[in-house]
Amino acid sequence: MMSLKNGGADNRYRFSGGDDLRPYNVSASFILQGVHMTLVHHYNDTLNFVLKDSMKPSIKPLGATLDAFSISQIAGAYCDDGQNYKNLVGFVKGLNMKYTETTMAGCPKPT
What we know:
The mean pLDDT is 86. The protein has one domain. Strands 1-2-3-4 form a 4-stranded antiparallel beta sheet. The protein contains 2 helices and 4 strands; from the N terminus they run H-E-E-E-E-H. It is of the alpha+beta class. 14% of the residues lie in helices and 32% in strands. It comes from Branchiostoma lanceolatum (Common lancelet). This is Hypp2059 protein.
């Protein structure tokens, strides 16, 4: 959340809101939403994050899973050269943490 509030690595991320889900005994710990402004400072894309804690009682932390999704705020963002992917990977790389990327939906990786 702090990275969104601080603008992220390129200072074009903004925090929109979020919630702590831990009191509700559900599979996710936190949900967050933010906005990323494109390089030309003309388009905004909405980012949604679900953070799932991988800790188990009496065992040291195993890490966490971050499910993330980005969607353009304009219709017709076809052929955007992967901007929504760039929004997500730029944010995660800016955290300076070890991560493993898994695509669950969307375009396949280039061959």
